[in-house]
Fold Aspartate aminotransferase.
Amino acid sequence: MPFVKELEQEFASDPKFNHEYLWFLGMDTFNKRAPEVILGKGSSALLEGRAFGAQTVSGTGALRMGAEFLVRHLHYNTVYLSAPTWDNHPLVFGYGGFKDIRSYRYWNPASKSVDFDGLLEDIGKAPENSVIVLQLAAHNPTGCDLTQEQWTEIANVMEKRNLFPFIDAAYQGVATGDLDRDAQPVRYLVQRGFELFVAQSFSKNMGLYGERVGCLTVVLGKGRAQDATNIISQLKLIARALYANPAKYGAEIVSRVLSDPALMEEWKKCLTEMVHRIRAMRTRLKEKLHLLGTPGNWDHITKQIGMFSYLGLTSCQMEYIRVTHHVHLGSASRINMSGLTYMNIDRVAGAIHDTVT
Ligand code: PMP
């Protein structure tokens, strides 16, 4: 993003740029600002001192550190992931110490949308004190998000069965282009009084993939602010044992952006542009398939949201499109929409058409 490049030039030309280690849980400014992005500046949890952030090695680090804390200190044993999910989730939670890794249904191949009945049934049967990992927005890999009504129903079940929400916010802003709108489900859960963890990532929404900037945001229940000190000291030990100190450079960039209203505006503008471009590609791909007369219904391409879509091709068709057209898709025909451009979209549509017919 252009404002990131400008900040980098500024850092590069600053002879006093500090190359010291950060402390175990990262930069103070970052830890103050990142939770505001996800919970909202006026969040009562933040104002009451019962929510705080710990800088991590991106979203993956936040998931891993949160998982280890839940197992080591709160003795959780069972975690539920969506089926399908980001393929690293089972590994992260497994190495984090969870012995019992289960899944809840998420994708309905017939409707090419969320299998909500299946989801509710599965988490409704989860043993009490299970951890439920829920992707906040722009679900990877299906591109299908939950509606507010669905979040409400999930919250009802989680409350009734004493389940712990672990929110994976790897794509905040990438679903609708609006950081606040995408964060709504977390804010709703906090408002309902849930204690929860959020794994935040700035990889996608600020284009800082390699810099590894993330945050484990912890929200405690009402009246439990005094527990923050103990939790922080245990998180410090986990961070020390994993990598000692998180990375500084990306956190400097993100902290500057989050502390400067003008840079925040620039960031929001870039996010909107990014999301509009991806939406334009979705529309164009669907139109192109209609124009070609490709059999099947392709409405899911524009109904799905964020960077990914499940096209709904069979494994046989995926093999054909790869070998014949050299169009490479993720497993279960996941397409990364941000890889489509006006230069290659006609070729991709043509390849899908040929494969399906
Ligand atoms: N969660 C999900 C759902 C993801 O797709 C990813 C990255 N692909 C991550 C977490 C972690 O991303 P990072 O470590 O780059 O923040």
Remarks:
- The CA atoms of residues 161 and 218 lie 21 Å apart.
